[in-house]
Amino acid sequence: MAPSLLGGFTKSLAMTVLSEIGDKTFFAAAILAMRHPRKLVLAGCLTALIVMTALSACLGWAAPNLISRKWTHHVTTLLFFVFGIWSLWEGFKEDGDSEELAEVEKELDDAFKTNKGDSKSKSKGNEDTKKQQRPFLMQFFSPIFIKAFSITFFGEWGDKSQIATIGLAADENPFGVVLGGIIAQALCTTAAVLGGKSLASQISEKMVELSSGVLFLLFGIMSLLSGPEGEL
């Protein structure tokens, strides 16, 4: 029996929401939205997350074609348990303060000050020369869009949620995984951009980690009880 679209959708939606709320890229989007036009920040962050979700799902979809579905199922089950224990451990270690938010804000502040200092030290040339010297992508996209995209994309690369998406797509319907992931990313990113730092500071990283840990363990148990073909 083939993995169901609904199963992939619901698991991806729930996993992505709990993985992204309180994540580094969530805080980055909230802080960037305070300093730059929200539409550009939202477009950049969301585009990066959609691209990352699609790439991860493609990798997961390709896995069963390279190795047997039985082995991909076992690896995915193991990943769910590992991430569940990891998240619970991180949750129990949290003291309740939003350390992630402070860390992201400091990094962005340092980058902003560096860029500002560099721009002041450069002499003003004429506009045609400046345009020619701009990177290729900057000539077609806003620098703010590129900044939001790059911070989000590279922030997500190799993250727990990306690896979990690959594993989920290998074991569930990849179209459902992509659809659920994109909707969840859109909800979380929009909330971060509209809510800004005031919303981000209210999020309990401890509760998010504990909740995601329980969810990962639940997925692991469900995967363990079901066979490689997805039947209980």
TrEMBL record:
Q: Does the keyword Nucleus apply?
A: no
Source species of the chain: Digitaria exilis
Task: Give the family, as the similarity comment puts it.
Answer: Belongs to the GDT1 family.
Q: What is this protein called?
A: GDT1 family protein
Which is an annotated Pfam family here?
GDT1
Keyword terms, alphabetized? Membrane, Transmembrane, Transmembrane helix
Q: Specify whether Transmembrane helix is a keyword of the entry.
A: yes
**Transmembrane parts of this sequence:** 40-63, 136-155, 175-195, 207-226
Q: GO biological process: what's one of them?
A: Golgi calcium ion transport
Q: Which domain of life is it from?
A: Eukaryota
An example Gene Ontology molecular-function term: calcium ion transmembrane transporter activity
Q: Where in the cell is it found?
A: Membrane
Q: Which PANTHER family match?
A: TRANSMEMBRANE PROTEIN 165, TRANSMEMBRANE PROTEIN HTP-1 RELATED
Q: Give me the Gene Ontology terms describing cellular component.
A: Golgi apparatus; membrane
Give the record's membrane topology. Multi-pass membrane protein
**Where is coiled-coil annotated?**
none
